[in-house]
Structure formats: structure tokens, C-alpha cells
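Protein 1 of 2
SEQ + STRUCT:
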Amino acid sequence: MRGADAFSVASPNARPATPPLLAVEGLTTRLVGTGASVLDDVSFEVEEGETVCVVGESGSGKSMLALAIMGLLPPAIRIAQGAIRLRGQDLARLSPAEWRARRGRDLAMIFQEPMTALNPVMRVGTQVAEVLRKRRAMSDQAARCETLRLFERVGIAHAAARFDAYPHELSGGLRQRVMIAIALATEARLLLADEPTTALDVTIQAQILDLLNDLRRDRALGLVLITHDLGVVAEMADRVLVLYAGRVAELAPVASLFDRPMHPYTRALLASIPAIEGPRKRLAAIDGAVPAVGAMPEGCRFRPRCQLAAARCTSVPPLAQLEPRHHAACWVTAPQDTSP
């Protein structure tokens, strides 16, 4: 398995005595029937109190990765190989009932669009209280009191009045805060946030990101933050996982990634950001589009769009360590002794 060979965290012999909060090792998911890969040999870790940002264009597999970790893959997609270890226990080997018992207790997710994630015919306070009753065995009164405390914790003013509101009666920012309150109600140690600031204005975006950062620090949460916004990455991330067409293109500490991007895809993403200082110039664009599932090119999946593509790029590049804690899957930027 490519990730196990080239990426040290995927090797059982290299695992530290204390396992990380989350270790995804060589995760591959496939479409039932065709066998086409959706995620291919994805490996990374998340420690307590660490934020790992997952970036890439639409169709790169970011949301599918989060759903796989949560055990919420659609029926047409299955885990073909690899492990999803939470404190050393492989969730991918659990039965659906066992996975359901861990979900909402040890790991939680904030979905991309709260208006569709929240039940439109239930009051928002009831939706939070339901989690508290089922996951923490609270009485109705205790669950209501804890819900009001969580509302205040996530910055929902007039918590008692908001308890009985329906989702459509709240703004987008307040609905997102309700989603965060639901995630916190579980007391999970791992939180996945799938573009939690989508469709919010910049002021509310900043408030939501500050809230997530405060919660990560105060509760030592491991946070996996999926985003398209590289400005958010620069502000929030400890490390960055760059996905392209279901494969890891690059994995690095945030400062290293912005200062010395190794993969041509990462460089192209960074080149598309407008500069705050200096003269204005035309933004770089990445020609083409992310290939569809089942129509992946041979070898490096970025090859048809890459200006540095060479003959050896028709072979799959390993995820190689090029600097301390900085990995990239590219034949052009990898050391020469990794050539096929």
C-alpha cells in the first residue's frame, strides 16, 4: 500500500507509544459495483488540540473524507481498505451499531449547510436537548438547562427565547451556532467541520472561526476543518492536508506549506490568491477540472493539468517526506532516488 510505504505514520512499526487522537491510514473508498476509487490511500493524523485543515477544489474528496471518518458514507460507497483509528481503535472494523455508539460520543461533525442539517419541524433547543438525553442520559429539565448553557457558550444571545425557535426563524450565523452547540453537547474529543462558514458574511465568518478556535483550545479538541478559503487555512491551521481527486497531494505544517509549497497543485492554489500588497496582477488559473470518479488519469491524477508533467508522472508518485513533517506526492519535486 503506497501510503504505508512512503508515509511514516501509516506504518504500525512507526506508531508512537501514545496513539494520536485520530490516525487515518491508507484509507481507500470505492463505488459499489464499479470499484472506482473515491478516496485513494489517504493517510494523516490529528493530535489533541490540533487543527488540521483539509483543502482542495470541489470534487477532491474533502467532504467524502469527513463522512468516511464519521461512518456516514452513502450506501453506494464502501471502505475498501485502510484504517480510521480513534485513540488506537479502528472504527472501520466496527459494526454499524458500534460505530453509531462512538459517533456523537467521541467524534462529532458540523455539516456544511445548517438549514439542511437541522430538522426544520423541530425547535432548535429540542434538537440540542435530544442529544443530551440520548448521549449523556440527562433528564428533560437537566437537558434544557445544559442546552441554554451551550447556547450561551456558543454566543447565542437571549438563549431562553431562542430555545423554542425553529431553524427558519434564525439567521445563518445563529443556525451554525446551533450546529456547534449540538456538536459540543456530545463532549466529543474530535470535531469535524465541513466548511462551517459557507454563505455567511465575513463578520459572522470571523466570529464562527474564533468560536471554533476558542473551543479547540479550551477543550483540547482535535479539529478537522474543511475549507476552500486559504485565508482561513492561514489563520486556523496547525497542519494542512491538500487533497486532489481523492489522493493526498501534500501534507505539511501551515507555515511550511505557505512558505515552501512542494506540489505543483498546491503552488497553483496559492498562486490563485490575490496579493494584499504590491502591484496588482492577473490571477493565475488552473486549466481544466478535477477528473470525475471512474475517469481518473493514469499515474498522478494532477498530470493532465500540470505544467511540470513529465514521462514518469504516468506512474503513481509516493507520498514522500521532502522536509521534516512535510510530505508531497510528486515525481518532479521528490528526491531523485524515489523515481520509478
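Protein 2 of 2
SEQ + STRUCT:
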Amino acid sequence: MSQLPLFASARETVLVDDDRGRVAYTSGLVPDDVAAAWFAEIRERVPWKTQRRRMYDRDVDVPRLMAHFRLVPEEGCLPEAISAAVETVVGATGVPFNSVGLNLYRDGRDSVAPHNDHLDEIVEGFPIALLSLGAVRRMSIRAKEPPRRVLNVDLAAGSLLVMSYETQLHYTHGIPKIKRPVGPRISLALRVKPARDAAEEASFYR
């Protein structure tokens, strides 16, 4: 059973909620001025990296910049904006996230192909939460099997999208490229990942 509580906010829109999973979108979780300040700090302070992946027998650049932080004390200090963003999402969802992945989409040429999370990298029953900052980008969520439901969600600054664990079994999600001019966007993807060792597991699940 997914640990995905209902938000108290009236701005939440439940996009799907059935045996294949639950997807909910909350607009305006973070005020515009706060979202803009977080965007500026995270863009400036995070050590963004370019990754390369093997595709069609050649190495290519991943079309976005990436970063990752493990949300445990021994990992060191987080940028203040990330700490505040994580606290906000945890407060809204009640989920004890322990990992945040960041993506910087510099313009419309940056994207992420349709995919689902690797199930061995997330703890069963816990959702994935996506907090958006910066320019609006569309996420496409597609069912893998009939009925071929497609959800297109415009992710605005300060919004939160929450996908239950089950959605990773039955849907893919991605950010397609767009041709029109668009500003940069940062997404914070919060997950509950398996503990690295017994000591961490004991502290995390207490």
C-alpha cells in the first residue's frame, strides 16, 4: 500500500487514482517570490555536472545538467534553498525522503526521455515527489499498457507533482523537447532510496 497521504491544500488536483497508481498535482505550493529565490540560489550554488550515456553505439551528452544529494547528516551541508525545499515537500506529503536529484533544463533543447524509476533504487510503497522551479515545462505521463492513458501536465514554478510507487510499474514519464523559446527550469526529484548500511537504516527508519 502506497504511503501517499492526501494534501490538505485545496489546490491539489488528483490526475489519476486507481489500481495502477496515483498522480496528484499541487499548484502554488511555494509562493512565486520564494520559488524565484530558491531557483537563483540552487542554480548558482549547486555543482552541476554533465553526464554521458551510451546510445546507439556511441556516447552522447545527457541533454540537461544534473546533481544529487543524499539527505543524511554525514553528507555535509546542503545549500539552504535545497534544505528549505525538502522541508516544504516533506511537510506537505509526510514522506521521509532521503534523496534529492536535481535537473537543470537550460532551454527547450534540454529534456528527459520517457522512463520509469529503477525499482531497485527506490523503496517499495513510497512515492516520488517533483518540485518545479523556473520556467514552465510539460511532463508527459503515459500508461505502458491499455488503456493507453496519457497525462500532459504543465509543471509551473512552485508546483509539486507526486507519483505513487505503483505508477513506476505502469507508467513512464518524461520532459519532451520544445522548439519555442523557453527559460531555464530546475526540478527537485525527492525519493526514498534504500539505506546504504545497517547504521543508516536504523537511523532512517526509527
